[in-house]
Amino acid sequence: MISSPLLLGDEGSNQISRSVRLRASASAYLNRTFSTPTSATIWTWSAWVKRGTLTRTYRLFGASTTTFLTFNSSDQLNLTLNGVSAATSTAVFRDPSAWYHIVYQQNGSAQTIYVNSVSIATGTTAASIFNTAISHQIGAANTTNYFDGYLTEINFIDGQALTPFSFGETDSITGVWKPKSYSGTYGTNGFELNFSDNSASTAATIGKDYSGNGNNWTPNNISVTAGTTYDSMLDVPTPYADGGNGRGNYPTWNPLTAGGLITFSEANLKALSTSASAPFSIESTIKTATTGKWYAEVTMAVGASSPAVGIGNNPATSASNTDQFTAYRVNATYITSGMGASSSGTPATFTTNDVIGIAYDAGAGTLVFYKNGTLQSGGFTAITAGNYSFIVRKDSASGDGGFLNCGQRPFSYTPPTGFVALNTQNLPTPTISNGASYMAATTYTGTGAALTVANTVGSASFQPDLVWVKGRSGATDHAWYDAVRGVQKQIESNSDGAETTETTGLTAFGSTGFTIGALAQMNTNAATYVGWQWNAGGSTVTNTSGSISAQVKANTTAGFSVVTFTGNGTLGATIGHGLGVAPSFITIKNRSAVGNWNSYHASLGATQGILLNSTNATSTDVGFWNNTAPTSTLITLGSYSVVFSNTFVAYCFAAVAGYSAFGSYTGNGSTDGPFVFLGFRPRWVMSKRTDSTGSWLVVDSSRNTYNVVNGYLVPNTTAAEASATWGDFLSNGFKLRGTTHNGSGESYIYACFAENPFKLSLAR
Prior knowledge:
Oligomer: single chain
Number of helices: 2
Strand content: 35-45%
Helix content: under 10%
Shape: globular
């Protein structure tokens, strides 16, 4: 049921055991008065940080009301020294579902701020009152603007300007930045706080300095008393088994799916409805796997209506009463919608401060509840398999909600036998731990001469079998090449034209990338490009599973295959795709004649199709797929793809948990747009409006290295890269932040590929 610990590629990792939760609502912080420093102008501050409340100003580290490192109300990191704004990031940091590593380096009059090892802001302000003999605070600045969130492994190095590599490293297998133990000296005012001693809330316990300097910090309004205010957490950036609940990243309530109807506090473990509008579910940031037995507790807050607690999903929109839920309601009833479940039994009523235990057996499709440790009558069976959040479902009133506990603090009651806490340690080990081994988005600059483009990211690379190149700085045709058709054979997603032979186009598929000649659309001197690449694995084989024999190169691990075949003129002919599971996205192009890019998407179904080379809406037409969905072995062809003696190529993609996802969402036209849960941190997203005309759109993390993501390309036109507010890439999905592909009430499909699965990913 539960995975073994993921084996990491480096042995110097720092297994962090605990974090401290700072609740802004409790005015929680730590303070210490510094001594005369080793250096008043050179030091380094490093911490692992998980955000709670967003879009408000709060301090991470401060020395007065004029000197502090802070998240501002725009979710940027800002450093203010002696009342002067010394450095502010362009990037925004509004991912509440995972951990960030933040380093502030002061080197004389130069400042650098790093997030997850990358420099995101610099400044040149003279040294300040930081690291002088005055009071300093963690989580506040002179007892103002209290931080809301989680902190752990805070290191302060007095007298050295260090980089993030003194405190972290890139895992050689996963490519993810992770903590490592600091091994250097600390200087006079240096300290290490890891919050591992939670025996009391004193400077000698939870505020203890582990550097050897004895520079302990005094905790203020931090509780280690059992209950909803307990602040010593197992929520940490290093997943590992501990013989109990497990250490790792834990769920909180998710403010990104709240639709403006919920207030969040206490580092997102408390959520209360503020609106009497339509019913709506407050969701956890982590969803259950489709297997396993999962347990959580919610300490209830009951408003003037009829809240419920259980599991479910909001649709990928803001507030709606069309979400999925299966829940236990305050008035002693069970309610469900959209999850196929059946209920039996009559539970007790509950009220404010009752602890409701939720026990979901994903494999069996059953859900039972406990009230203050007592199993309730009946429950649910036959729940449709899926990834579900723990939820509190608010009714049409304000004040409904509760306090979430997934095991990051002690459970109030012992979970039933075999049920475990929901956290990243207990999530299944992903098949693909590093997406860079199977999909790449590589930027490069043309030279006008033969050029090899490497797709290596960290230690990961692969030999691509599909290369899709698009010019960024100028209008160019899209260029598609694959290893089954062979080098120099080009088709273009912005055109219905037949395949051409380009002798100076792609000339080789290399072991770590591809080589191109001087073809202008791919390699004009000084022009910028991106090359999207996929790994189809193994060798090309003849597949005779269908009524038409096909040449297939398939990677069953990554869910991708390239298929070529010759039409036989028969409506309903079939071809084998080699994936072993039904593909979720297929696009087929006629190579030998003019023809559209006929595309299938699982969210649209087999009675409809859509054109990759067109702005057209989806259309219902037997000519696409003969009204027959693909199976684990076959694709059924409509009349558009069986033209007698014409040759075709098909690109087939199946969903792989933690690596690829294909789904749909409905826009809301708001800067607080839909949150789409993927189960991974995305590298590449393609979307298309389906209910009306509109272009396709592709964004990726190589061209958009930080949030907000705004640079996009259009697969169905020659247009150069354009910019508009699209949204955020997050540790577990994406969030729309503008009206680009987020029109109110409009329907969209998407295809996405991962950097890393959520089990391993950091906040972005």
